[in-house]
Each structure stands twice: as structure tokens, then as C-alpha cells.
From TrEMBL:
This is Metallopeptidase family protein. It holds the Pfam family Zincin_1. InterPro entries: Zincin_1, Zincin_1_sf. SUPFAM superfamilies: Metalloproteases ('zincins'), catalytic domain. It comes from the Bacteria. Residues 1-51 are annotated as: Disordered.
Length: 157
């Protein structure tokens, strides 16, 4: 782009940065933070946790809860398998609340299915989500092992 000055000479406009951009950084279209600190690049080859999709974040949270409960899995005789599903398949005539989890028998023990979407939709913050996941996992394990959830909870009271 060129511009004629008052003396008739032609000069080039140069893109000169004079300071930070006005306004605030935005999370455009709900895709999370963008830029050199959030996306893979030479400064962060594997990216940072801000780049983790919601499903992976939920799986990581469930994994942390199960890792904290690992001593109980080695002591208890019943095999328990914990899986995460997106949402339950419900018949069209279903009128009750959508279940957050279910326990299903399998040949070697029990399978606990956690439903990610109904759980996350009932939480406003990450702290609420963590508390709800802890409560659901402890309640279901207590149901399978015939114990009190308070006896399983390793968190300080």
C-alpha cells in the first residue's frame, strides 16, 4: 500500500506495533485459548493442558480418582472394571432423570459405567465436577464391595 505525501514523494506504510492490542483476549467460538502457549509449536512441542479436549480431561480426572483408590482394588476379591461412556442409551418413553452411572455384572465381576455428558452438565465448575466424580465412583464401588463410601474415601476429611 502506498501513499503520496505532501511533497509528492511516495512512502510505504509499515506495520508498526505500538503496544498491546486494545481489548481483551477472546475465546473465539468456544474452542479454548489459542496462541503460542496453547498450540503445539517450537516453544511447546506437545502443547499445554489448555489444548486438551473435554473428553480427555474427564478421562484424566477419572484416572486420578481411580489411582487414589488403587489400594482398595488390590485388596478386594471382586474384579471391578470402570469405563467412561458419553451418555446412556435410553428408550423414548424414559421419563426419569438421566442416570449418571450404572453397575453391570460381567463374568469376572462388575463393570461401572460413568456417563460423561450427564455428569458434566450437572456441574458449574471444575471443583464441582471433581467432587461429583469422587462421589459417584465411591458410591458405586461401595455398592459393589458392600462397604460404606466413607470407608473407601482416601481424601482427608
Amino acid at each position: 500500500m502506498t501513499r503520496d505525501s505532501a511533497d509528492g514523494a511516495t512512502s510505504r506504510w509499515r506495520g508498526v506495533v505500538t503496544g498491546p492490542r486494545p481489548g481483551r483476549m477472546r475465546d473465539r467460538r468456544g474452542r479454548g485459548p489459542r496462541g503460542p502457549m496453547a498450540l503445539p509449536g517450537p516453544l511447546s512441542p506437545r502443547s499445554v493442558p489448555a489444548h486438551r479436549p473435554p473428553k480427555a480431561s474427564f478421562d484424566l480426572l477419572v484416572g486420578e480418582v481411580l489411582a487414589a483408590l488403587e489400594p482398595h482394588f488390590t485388596v478386594e476379591p471382586d474384579q471391578v472394571e470402570v469405563v467412561v461412556e458419553e451418555a446412556p442409551l435410553l428408550p423414548p418413553e424414559w421419563t426419569d432423570d438421566v442416570p449418571l452411572s450404572i453397575v453391570a455384572p460381567i463374568p469376572d465381576g462388575h463393570r461401572i459405567m460413568l456417563f460423561r455428558i450427564p455428569i458434566t452438565q450437572r456441574c458449574l465448575t471444575n471443583a464441582d465436577l471433581e467432587d461429583l466424580v469422587w462421589t459417584i465412583v465411591l458410591d458405586r464401588l461401595a455398592e459393589v464391595w458392600h462397604m460404606s463410601p466413607d470407608d473407601l474415601d482416601p481424601r482427608p476429611r
